[in-house]
Amino acid sequence: MHVLLVLAALYAVLPLVWLVTSATKSVGDFSTTGAFEFGQFNLGANLSALFTQENGVFLAWIRNSLLYAGLGAVLGSFICAACGYAIAKLDFPGRRALFAVTLAGVLVPTTALALPLYLLASQLHVVGTFWAVFVPLLTNPFGVYLARVYAEAAVPGEILEAARTDGAGELRTFFTIALPMMRPGLVTIFLFQFVGIWNNFFLPLVMLTDPKLFPMSLGLYQWSTRVTQFPQYNPLVITGSLLAVLPLVVAFVLLHRQWRSGLAAGSVK
Question: Are 199 and 66 in contact (CB under 8 A)?
Fold first, then answer.
């Protein structure tokens, strides 16, 4: 078992090690050094070229990714928490049918929704804008499912009844009582949302044409298609990919404790 775990860890870590070593290389070092060997430590020059290439468009990609993933994960997590809480704790007609539809939505791959979303965005005349990518990312059936499971386990019905008896409305009960109790589950949903949006590629590819609106995933892909004709893009793509990984690592390091507790509570339930 330990051998299998070590192999799995190496499978996950070695690509990151390759990114770190390759980001230090110049164009010539890629043909003269091994995969995991450091070059002549050209990292500073690579970063400088990365941020100045095409009038600094990479900075716009960073800003866009932070907006898409950061703001989208915050708003999306809140929407999922509210929906999951309502399905778990509120009694209204069609609750079971709504939850069944939500479970069905988990099974639908996101790529299958790209064309319908494009046609809808075209009818709304938002294709090629920030909103064409941002708004669809706010919905996540798996996040609603996870919030429903966690609300069912973490929010006692007796406390909600006591709050209602004291005169608290449904919104106040949710914001002041249920939402703090759901915090570990909310962190878990936030991480799933953040990672999913940060790595999202197909929807921006379909919706966007202006490079200034690209997220890093789509922008780096666009550069990677030029590597065979213009080798100078190779260190730019690798260095940019390394920078694109760092926010995910930071998010997991800062939130991993609550993420583990929230995921464990959901799995036990």
Answer: no
In sequence order, the 6+-apart residues with CB closer than 8 A to the CB of 106 are 141, 142, 145
207: Cα within 13 Å, side-chain hemisphere: 32
Whole-prediction pTM = 0.85
Mean pLDDT, rounded, for 43-69: 92
Name residues whose C-beta falls within 8 Å of residue 35's C-beta, 6 or more positions apart in sequence.
18, 21, 22
Topology adopted by domain 57-266: MetI-like fold (1.10.3720)
pLDDT class for 259, splitting at 50, 70, 90? low
pLDDT digits (tens, 9 = 90+) for 134-174: 999 888 899 999 899 888 888 888 888 888 888 888 888 88
Q: What is the DSSP letter of 182?
A: T
Q: What stretches of 53-182 show up as alpha helix (H) in DSSP?
A: 57-66, 72-89, 95-107, 114-124, 130-134, 141-154, 157-165, 170-173, 179-181
Which of 106, 127, 95 lies closest to 205 in space, CA to CA? 127
Residue type, 116: P
Cβ neighbors of 52 (< 8 A, separation 6 or more) are none
Give yes or no for a contact between 109 and 196, defined as CB atoms under 8 angstroms apart: no
Domain ranges (residues) in the chain: 57-266
Alpha-carbon span 109 to 77, nearest angstrom = 20
